[in-house]
Amino acid sequence: MTINIEEIEDYLEIPIPSSGKLILESSRRVTGPGLLWEKPGAILDVFTDHFEKQEVVRVWSSEIQRVLDAIGWSDSLIKTRIFDSGVNLAISASIDLLYSAVFVVETSWHLTASKLLEETPIPFDTLIADLNTVIKMEQNPPVLLLQQAAKVKDIDVLWDDDYVSLGHGKGSEKWSINEIPAPADVNWDALHNVPVALITGTNGKSTSVRLSTAIAEAAGLVGGSTSTDYVKLGDDVLDYGDYSGPGGARMLLRDKRLEIAFLEVARGGILRRGLPLTEASGAMVTNIAADHLGEYGVNTVEHLADAKFAVAGTLSKDGVLVLNADDELVVRNGLKSGSRICWFSLDHNNDQIKSAKSAGNLCCWCEDGLINYFDGTSVTLVVKIADIPIAMGGAARFNVQNAMGATCLAKAMNIADQAIIKGLTTFTSTPDDNPGRCNEFIVKGARVFVDFAHNPHSINAISDMLSNLPAKHKYLLIGQAGDRSNQDIIELTRGALRFKPDIVATMDMAEYLRGREFGETAAIIKDECLKSGITEGSITHFPSPPEGAQFIIDQLEEGDLVLLLALAERDKIFEMLENAED
Questions:
Q1: Which one of 235, 279, 355, 564 has the minimum C-beta count within 10 Å?
Q2: The domain 439-580: what is its CATH number?
Q3: Domain boundaries for CATH 3.90.190.20 within the chain
């Protein structure tokens, strides 16, 4: 039987009772570790301020169990989570039946909402008959046999609508979902997992991914990475775009040239689809701060921490979880994770560092201008912070943390010390190595920094770093996306003003208006600048980032300092600065 995913995806349309009292926000497949648990399946997000949430969970739990019993899914597990404005409801399912799992939870929600709203549901037998039909269309027993055989051998299994693959990179093989071999016909000796690390957090993800990849390449390995910018393997960009979700991971991990991989994992990918693998060598949480809250029931920074720590569920049995011991939420969640942890800290007196050294556990810290790595017995690697270009002599504390995190991951992936040192000391803040992250240009004797910082945590960090540099005049280029709240824009502006600019250029970004009028976001920024004491004559508005950047370039003199928060048209600004460089 040929499986047609497009036909299955649209096969059923289950009506959901509509009411402002009870809102089904979304339903979706989940491929692996995510906010609720580590299982594949399907999830619903429901909002209500009318019904008691415990009552919603009680009724749904009863209805979903009734549906699962009727379709014979006795092994399916149920998971619920209550948050301030609603509930998440999920079931586990086999990897060959994830579309069916969505129809199953939607059916259960149809019955639940009908009962709570006192409406008449579709007859139960009709609903079950429809589910059994689509389940029969989607089920793929050969996929499950392959998955079971791979699990025995600790071989990772990746799947999507079109393919199933075993292993990673050089040790991988893939097949069409309609051409799955029997386990006995697979050449298992040719399959293996390559070292893979997942990197998440609020800030520092992209820099950590790129720095870690540079370390791997210094070891002579064919390194690959995914990020919000692209999927890259060696010098080849496989595709441009936001690939911080499972799709990018699969694209990279199925490339047979790959020998080691570093995957940037963003909040959205974790919440929408979950994570695609369960045999990672390492995972890292850089930090956790408020950013993009309010989706999928993640309304607080504590909820965000729960989501970020899904990466712990991807680790192999001997995998290492690398954690920032200077971040309170990271520490709190790390201590209850149950994973093998390697802590890192800017302070050698940090409690987690002292505890790790005392207990003979992995850790990394800064002391007397040095990064020290402790393998549980002794310090086996020492690097001078002054020799790490992106650390800017230690002034870029966030990049010192990124360097420590990358060191810990590299050690977890068995990369030699010599390669780690080479990677750390040759990776730079240039657009080639780390585009959009603290990139420095010298124009007319002025220092110009371009950064993609777009949340208070990252903007505060870059502003604080630059605020202490000497300057004749300071220039700031700033704009923000329109889907931020007014208060978010105010907080972001306050962070940028810690740079203490003399001249501010505000800008619009046509592709980031996101529902606001042209000039509306810039007006909020200007108002906050005026409140901070910057005079009206020192604030100029421009309709695009390049026009604002050109205005600043035209005025520069030797000794000036510039911060360009280039959230859009970054490549064009890079070109302008390169053409203007001394």
A1: 235
A2: 3.90.190.20
A3: 439-580
